[in-house]
Amino acid sequence: MGVIRVFLHNFLDAYSEKGRDVQVEVQDGWQVKDVLEALDIQAEIIGVVLLNKELVSKDAHIKANDRIDLYPMFGGG
């Protein structure tokens, strides 16, 4: 058990009353997708996940003191 920092980019800060920089208490064995669930963010709207500044999938395991940056799906053309 421990705490991680989650940075919500672009419009994702609308999911938090605490702004873009959120602390989340996590359990042993949690993955990024568990953090999304704890924040009530649908996994489908997340396009990029950085774990300690490295690109990872939503299945990546996390531990106390990690940093997660979440970016929404985006497109253009």
Protein model, in words:
The protein contains one helix and five strands; from the N terminus they run E-E-H-E-E-E. It has 77 residues and is mainly beta. The protein has a single domain (2-72), classed as Roll (Ubiquitin-like (UB roll)). A five-stranded mixed sheet has the order 2-1-5-3-4, covered by helices on one side. The termini are far apart.
The total domain count is 1
Helicity, as a percent range? under 10%
Per CATH, the class reads: Alpha Beta
- Beta-strand portion reads 35-45%
Strand order of the largest sheet: 2-1-5-3-4
CATH architectural category: Roll
Distance between the termini: 43 Å
The total of helices stands at 1
Question: What's the helix-strand series?
Answer: EEHEEE
Question: Which helices and strands appear, and what pairs or packs with what?
Answer:
Elements (H helix, E strand, L loop, with lengths): L1 E7 L12 E6 L5 H7 L7 E6 L2 E3 L10 E6 L5
Parallel strand pairs: 1-5
Antiparallel strand pairs: 1-2, 3-4, 3-5
Features:
77 residues, mainly beta, 1 helix, 5 strands
Q: Care to give the gist of this entry?
A:
The chain has 77 residues and is mostly beta strands. It has one helix at 32-38; strands spanning 2-8, 21-26, 46-51, 54-56, 67-72. The longest helix has 7 residues, at 32-38.
